[in-house]
Amino acid sequence: GVYFEVLNLFLVTMLRLQHLRWKEHQDSVKHIRKRRTTSRTGAQEEIVTATATSAGIGTGTKNVGKTPSDVTDTKHNSKSAKAKTSAKDSSGGGSAYMQGQEILEWQLKRHIGRYDSSTVLYHALEFGNFEACAVVYQALSRWPEAIECRLYSHRTTPQDVLKWVRKKIRFMSVAYQSRLIPRVLEFWAERQLPADRLEECLLSVFSDVATALGQVLFARMPKSMNPGGSDSGAADGVNSRRAGRRAQEGKCKIPLFSWRLFSKLVKHGIELLR
Whole-prediction pTM value? Predict the structure, then answer.
Protein backbone atom coordinates (compact mmCIF):
# COMPACT_ATOMS: atom_id res chain seq x y z
CA GLY A 1 0.00 0.00 0.00
CA VAL A 2 2.61 2.57 1.06
CA TYR A 3 5.03 1.53 -1.70
CA PHE A 4 2.20 1.86 -4.25
CA GLU A 5 1.32 5.40 -3.11
CA VAL A 6 4.95 6.51 -2.87
CA LEU A 7 5.69 5.22 -6.37
CA ASN A 8 2.64 7.03 -7.74
CA LEU A 9 3.78 10.27 -6.11
CA PHE A 10 7.36 9.76 -7.35
CA LEU A 11 6.28 9.25 -10.99
CA VAL A 12 3.85 12.17 -10.95
CA THR A 13 6.61 14.38 -9.51
CA MET A 14 8.96 13.26 -12.31
CA LEU A 15 6.29 14.13 -14.87
CA ARG A 16 5.87 17.60 -13.37
CA LEU A 17 9.65 18.10 -13.37
CA GLN A 18 9.85 17.08 -17.02
CA HIS A 19 7.13 19.57 -17.84
CA LEU A 20 9.15 22.36 -16.20
CA ARG A 21 12.33 21.27 -18.00
CA TRP A 22 10.49 21.27 -21.32
CA LYS A 23 9.16 24.79 -20.75
CA GLU A 24 12.66 25.96 -19.79
CA HIS A 25 14.10 24.37 -22.92
CA GLN A 26 11.46 26.00 -25.14
CA ASP A 27 12.10 29.42 -23.56
CA SER A 28 15.82 28.94 -24.15
CA VAL A 29 15.27 28.08 -27.82
CA LYS A 30 13.05 31.15 -28.30
CA HIS A 31 15.68 33.37 -26.67
CA ILE A 32 18.43 31.99 -28.92
CA ARG A 33 16.33 32.49 -32.06
CA LYS A 34 15.58 36.05 -31.05
CA ARG A 35 19.27 36.72 -30.42
CA ARG A 36 20.22 35.27 -33.81
CA THR A 37 17.62 37.44 -35.55
CA THR A 38 19.04 40.54 -33.84
CA SER A 39 22.56 39.44 -34.81
CA ARG A 40 21.57 39.04 -38.48
CA THR A 41 19.97 42.48 -38.50
CA GLY A 42 23.14 44.02 -37.07
CA ALA A 43 25.29 42.23 -39.66
CA GLN A 44 23.17 43.50 -42.52
CA GLU A 45 23.39 47.07 -41.20
CA GLU A 46 27.21 46.85 -40.97
CA ILE A 47 27.47 45.54 -44.54
CA VAL A 48 25.27 48.37 -45.84
CA THR A 49 27.36 50.91 -43.91
CA ALA A 50 30.61 49.44 -45.22
CA THR A 51 29.31 49.49 -48.79
CA ALA A 52 28.27 53.11 -48.46
CA THR A 53 31.62 54.07 -46.90
CA SER A 54 33.69 52.34 -49.60
CA ALA A 55 31.62 54.16 -52.21
CA GLY A 56 32.28 57.52 -50.54
CA ILE A 57 28.78 57.80 -49.12
CA GLY A 58 28.36 58.78 -45.48
CA THR A 59 30.89 59.99 -42.96
CA GLY A 60 31.09 57.07 -40.55
CA THR A 61 34.58 55.96 -39.52
CA LYS A 62 33.78 52.57 -37.97
CA ASN A 63 34.51 50.58 -41.14
CA VAL A 64 36.72 53.07 -43.03
CA GLY A 65 39.31 51.22 -45.11
CA LYS A 66 37.33 47.98 -45.03
CA THR A 67 35.58 46.41 -47.98
CA PRO A 68 32.17 44.80 -47.63
CA SER A 69 33.80 41.36 -47.87
CA ASP A 70 36.11 42.22 -44.94
CA VAL A 71 33.15 43.19 -42.81
CA THR A 72 31.27 40.07 -43.89
CA ASP A 73 34.22 37.81 -42.97
CA THR A 74 34.60 39.51 -39.61
CA LYS A 75 30.90 39.20 -38.93
CA HIS A 76 30.92 35.56 -40.03
CA ASN A 77 33.64 34.75 -37.49
CA SER A 78 31.71 36.61 -34.83
CA LYS A 79 28.50 34.76 -35.71
CA SER A 80 30.36 31.41 -35.58
CA ALA A 81 31.55 32.18 -32.08
CA LYS A 82 28.05 33.25 -31.05
CA ALA A 83 26.56 30.11 -32.60
CA LYS A 84 28.92 27.93 -30.57
CA THR A 85 27.97 29.82 -27.43
CA SER A 86 24.28 29.52 -28.28
CA ALA A 87 24.62 25.80 -28.92
CA LYS A 88 26.35 25.41 -25.57
CA ASP A 89 23.60 27.39 -23.85
CA SER A 90 20.77 25.47 -25.49
CA SER A 91 22.31 22.02 -25.09
CA GLY A 92 22.14 22.32 -21.32
CA GLY A 93 18.35 22.55 -21.15
CA GLY A 94 17.82 20.11 -23.99
CA SER A 95 20.16 17.46 -22.59
CA ALA A 96 18.63 17.82 -19.12
CA TYR A 97 15.18 17.24 -20.59
CA MET A 98 16.30 14.24 -22.67
CA GLN A 99 18.17 12.64 -19.78
CA GLY A 100 15.20 13.17 -17.49
CA GLN A 101 12.85 11.71 -20.10
CA GLU A 102 14.99 8.61 -20.51
CA ILE A 103 15.01 8.04 -16.74
CA LEU A 104 11.25 8.61 -16.53
CA GLU A 105 10.47 6.16 -19.33
CA TRP A 106 12.81 3.57 -17.81
CA GLN A 107 11.04 3.89 -14.46
CA LEU A 108 7.63 3.58 -16.10
CA LYS A 109 8.65 0.37 -17.88
CA ARG A 110 10.47 -1.13 -14.91
CA HIS A 111 7.65 -0.64 -12.41
CA ILE A 112 4.67 -1.38 -14.66
CA GLY A 113 1.96 -3.05 -12.58
CA ARG A 114 3.31 -1.57 -9.35
CA TYR A 115 1.73 1.86 -9.78
CA ASP A 116 -1.69 3.18 -10.73
CA SER A 117 -1.41 3.45 -14.52
CA SER A 118 -4.63 5.48 -14.84
CA THR A 119 -3.30 8.13 -12.43
CA VAL A 120 0.06 8.31 -14.22
CA LEU A 121 -1.62 8.50 -17.63
CA TYR A 122 -3.92 11.29 -16.42
CA HIS A 123 -1.00 13.43 -15.25
CA ALA A 124 1.11 12.57 -18.32
CA LEU A 125 -1.67 13.86 -20.56
CA GLU A 126 -2.14 16.88 -18.31
CA PHE A 127 1.52 17.81 -18.79
CA GLY A 128 1.49 16.93 -22.52
CA ASN A 129 4.07 14.16 -22.13
CA PHE A 130 2.78 11.89 -24.90
CA GLU A 131 6.01 9.86 -24.92
CA ALA A 132 5.39 8.81 -21.30
CA CYS A 133 1.78 7.92 -22.16
CA ALA A 134 2.96 5.78 -25.07
CA VAL A 135 5.46 3.94 -22.86
CA VAL A 136 2.74 3.05 -20.33
CA TYR A 137 0.29 1.92 -23.01
CA GLN A 138 2.98 -0.10 -24.76
CA ALA A 139 3.97 -1.78 -21.49
CA LEU A 140 0.28 -2.71 -21.06
CA SER A 141 0.26 -4.10 -24.64
CA ARG A 142 -2.32 -1.50 -25.67
CA TRP A 143 -0.77 -0.72 -29.06
CA PRO A 144 -3.57 1.40 -30.58
CA GLU A 145 -3.40 3.87 -27.70
CA ALA A 146 0.41 3.76 -27.71
CA ILE A 147 0.60 4.62 -31.41
CA GLU A 148 -2.02 7.34 -31.02
CA CYS A 149 0.11 9.00 -28.33
CA ARG A 150 3.25 8.64 -30.45
CA LEU A 151 1.47 10.43 -33.31
CA TYR A 152 1.10 13.48 -31.05
CA SER A 153 4.74 13.39 -29.94
CA HIS A 154 7.25 15.94 -31.30
CA ARG A 155 9.85 13.15 -31.43
CA THR A 156 7.92 11.05 -33.96
CA THR A 157 9.39 10.94 -37.48
CA PRO A 158 7.65 10.21 -40.81
CA GLN A 159 9.60 6.94 -40.98
CA ASP A 160 8.07 5.90 -37.64
CA VAL A 161 4.56 6.58 -38.97
CA LEU A 162 5.10 4.58 -42.16
CA LYS A 163 6.52 1.68 -40.14
CA TRP A 164 3.47 1.65 -37.82
CA VAL A 165 1.09 1.66 -40.78
CA ARG A 166 2.85 -1.33 -42.36
CA LYS A 167 3.52 -3.37 -39.22
CA LYS A 168 0.84 -2.44 -36.67
CA ILE A 169 -2.15 -0.46 -37.91
CA ARG A 170 -2.85 -2.79 -40.86
CA PHE A 171 -3.47 -5.69 -38.46
CA MET A 172 -5.86 -3.81 -36.15
CA SER A 173 -9.65 -3.88 -36.23
CA VAL A 174 -11.56 -1.45 -38.45
CA ALA A 175 -12.64 0.46 -35.34
CA TYR A 176 -9.06 1.08 -34.24
CA GLN A 177 -7.95 1.86 -37.81
CA SER A 178 -10.75 4.43 -38.12
CA ARG A 179 -9.41 6.03 -34.95
CA LEU A 180 -5.73 6.07 -35.94
CA ILE A 181 -5.82 6.79 -39.68
CA PRO A 182 -7.25 10.31 -39.22
CA ARG A 183 -4.38 11.15 -36.90
CA VAL A 184 -1.88 9.72 -39.43
CA LEU A 185 -3.37 11.93 -42.15
CA GLU A 186 -3.28 15.00 -39.88
CA PHE A 187 0.34 14.25 -38.91
CA TRP A 188 1.26 14.22 -42.62
CA ALA A 189 -0.75 17.31 -43.54
CA GLU A 190 0.38 19.43 -40.59
CA ARG A 191 4.04 18.87 -41.48
CA GLN A 192 3.38 19.35 -45.22
CA LEU A 193 5.14 16.08 -46.05
CA PRO A 194 5.08 14.62 -49.60
CA ALA A 195 1.73 12.87 -50.03
CA ASP A 196 3.15 10.29 -52.44
CA ARG A 197 5.21 8.60 -49.71
CA LEU A 198 2.18 8.01 -47.51
CA GLU A 199 0.06 7.06 -50.52
CA GLU A 200 2.51 4.36 -51.59
CA CYS A 201 2.54 3.02 -48.03
CA LEU A 202 -1.27 2.89 -47.89
CA LEU A 203 -1.45 1.22 -51.30
CA SER A 204 1.04 -1.43 -50.16
CA VAL A 205 -1.38 -2.46 -47.36
CA PHE A 206 -4.56 -1.44 -49.17
CA SER A 207 -6.47 -4.69 -48.71
CA ASP A 208 -6.03 -4.45 -44.92
CA VAL A 209 -6.94 -0.77 -44.45
CA ALA A 210 -9.31 -0.08 -47.37
CA THR A 211 -12.55 -0.12 -45.37
CA ALA A 212 -11.35 2.23 -42.62
CA LEU A 213 -9.42 4.43 -45.05
CA GLY A 214 -12.46 4.86 -47.27
CA GLN A 215 -14.67 5.77 -44.31
CA VAL A 216 -12.14 8.35 -43.10
CA LEU A 217 -11.23 9.95 -46.43
CA PHE A 218 -14.72 10.29 -47.89
CA ALA A 219 -16.02 11.66 -44.59
CA ARG A 220 -13.25 14.25 -44.13
CA MET A 221 -12.32 15.48 -47.60
CA PRO A 222 -13.92 18.63 -49.11
CA LYS A 223 -16.94 18.17 -51.38
CA SER A 224 -14.86 19.52 -54.27
CA MET A 225 -12.67 16.40 -54.07
CA ASN A 226 -15.57 13.92 -54.21
CA PRO A 227 -15.03 11.78 -57.33
CA GLY A 228 -18.79 11.48 -57.78
CA GLY A 229 -19.22 15.23 -57.94
CA SER A 230 -17.12 15.80 -61.09
CA ASP A 231 -18.33 15.42 -64.66
CA SER A 232 -15.05 15.69 -66.55
CA GLY A 233 -11.32 15.14 -66.25
CA ALA A 234 -10.72 18.89 -66.47
CA ALA A 235 -13.07 19.48 -63.57
CA ASP A 236 -11.22 16.79 -61.60
CA GLY A 237 -7.95 18.64 -62.13
CA VAL A 238 -9.43 21.96 -60.99
CA ASN A 239 -11.01 20.35 -57.95
CA SER A 240 -7.75 18.61 -57.08
CA ARG A 241 -5.77 21.87 -57.22
CA ARG A 242 -8.46 23.65 -55.21
CA ALA A 243 -8.32 20.94 -52.57
CA GLY A 244 -4.55 21.30 -52.49
CA ARG A 245 -4.89 25.02 -51.73
CA ARG A 246 -7.48 24.24 -49.03
CA ALA A 247 -5.10 21.74 -47.45
CA GLN A 248 -2.24 24.26 -47.45
CA GLU A 249 -4.51 26.85 -45.84
CA GLY A 250 -5.32 24.40 -43.04
CA LYS A 251 -8.99 23.98 -44.01
CA CYS A 252 -8.52 20.35 -45.02
CA LYS A 253 -6.58 18.02 -42.72
CA ILE A 254 -5.71 15.38 -45.33
CA PRO A 255 -2.73 15.18 -47.70
CA LEU A 256 -3.35 15.76 -51.40
CA PHE A 257 -3.51 12.16 -52.60
CA SER A 258 -3.76 11.24 -56.29
CA TRP A 259 -6.94 9.94 -57.91
CA ARG A 260 -5.31 6.52 -58.13
CA LEU A 261 -5.96 5.98 -54.42
CA PHE A 262 -9.51 7.38 -54.55
CA SER A 263 -10.42 5.25 -57.58
CA LYS A 264 -9.27 2.11 -55.74
CA LEU A 265 -11.36 3.12 -52.74
CA VAL A 266 -14.42 3.62 -54.96
CA LYS A 267 -13.93 0.18 -56.55
CA HIS A 268 -13.50 -1.34 -53.10
CA GLY A 269 -16.77 0.26 -51.93
CA ILE A 270 -18.64 -1.02 -55.00
CA GLU A 271 -17.35 -4.55 -54.36
CA LEU A 272 -18.57 -4.40 -50.78
CA LEU A 273 -22.06 -3.40 -51.95
CA ARG A 274 -22.34 -6.36 -54.31
Answer: 0.65
